[in-house]
Design goal:
Layout: E1 3-9, E2 24-25, E3 28-29, H1 30-39, E4 44-49, H2 53-59, E5 64-67, H3 75-88, E6 93-98, H4 106-119, E7 123-128, E8 131-139, H5 143-146, H6 156-161, E9 165-168, H7 181-188
Parallel strand pairs: 1-4, 1-6, 4-5, 7-9
Antiparallel strand pairs: 2-3, 6-8, 7-8
């Protein structure tokens, strides 16, 4: 079963005031770290770009960067782009990955991929604070549903309506995201994972 990993990096990062996926983490830009870890697990990894497309092209050299010409329509447009690429290239599933979670790693990606393969469901996602939280994997059986989302809504609304899904709990420490400069400062001040 072929799974395409799509790292979403199309937004303006308004709350951060800078392309947050380029902040240094583990001696490289955060997005490079996420791409490197994803490539260890999935059949192919792509980055969906938008507002900072040219900047990303200058930073990421070894991964395919796909420009989302509709990035101003919100996150749903990037998810649709990932799904269309998956359909065109005959992938069996797509993994939607945010570009602002510094602790995403090979282990997290392996857990979600193996759960998806073992359970044979339409979708697998992590669950944090009673909410579906990416990364999430969707089977090609639900690609058409994902193509119907709009605006700045993620795939959470598709997940909510699916009956054949699995949520993975207990990974909160890995699912921390960076939304503001204060989040990044807190991270740099020595946040320690309680593993």
């Amino acid at each position: 079963m072929k799974i395409l990993a799509s790292v979403l990096a199309a937004g303006k990062c308004s709350r951060f005031g800078y392309p947050k996926f380029l902040i240094p983490f583990e001696n490289r830009p955060l997005i490079q770290k996420i791409v490197d870890e994803s490539e260890k697990v999935f059949d192919k990894t792509v980055v969906i770009s938008g507002y900072y497309h040219d900047t990303l092209k200058g930073v990421l050299k070894e991964v395919q960067i796909l420009f989302n010409e509709n990035f101003e329509e919100g996150m749903s447009s990037s998810i649709k782009k990932a799904v269309l690429i998956s359909k065109i290239n005959k992938f069996d599933a797509v993994c939607i990955i945010p570009s602002d979670m510094p602790f995403l790693c090979e282990y997290v990606f392996s857990v979600i991929k193996n759960t998806f393969l073992e359970k044979n469901v339409d979708a697998v996602s992590f669950y944090k604070k009673n909410t579906p939280t990416p990364p999430s994997i969707f089977s090609k059986r639900v690609f058409d549903r994902l193509l119907m989302i709009d605006g700045d809504r993620g795939a959470r609304f598709v997940l909510r309506d699916l009956k054949n899904k699995v949520f993975i709990e207990g990974f909160e420490d890995y699912l921390i995201d960076i939304d503001t400069p204060d989040d990044y400062i807190a991270l740099l001040k020595g946040y320690q994972l309680n593993l």
